[in-house]
Amino acid sequence: xxxxxxxxxxxxxxxxxxxxxxxxxxxxxxxxxxxxxxxxxxxxxxxxxxxxxxxxxxxxxxxxxxxxxxxxxxxxxxxxxxxxx
Length: 85
Known about the structure:
mainly alpha; Helix Hairpins; 3 helices; elongated
């Protein structure tokens, strides 16, 4: 394993797995934070793997994941706010 692959594994174990754990339990607000945490971990791990494997054309995948996450979070937050009223 290269240093980039080890870094991606550490990101997945340190950010993605706890984020998924948080996203699967608790209050809806806590699940939203967990989902965001997991998404950040996944995007960072994908970016590290792309750089480690020198496949720069695939850098679009983590970047698009980050761009698509923002509207999804806004919709989810809007649904949480309308549920409280």
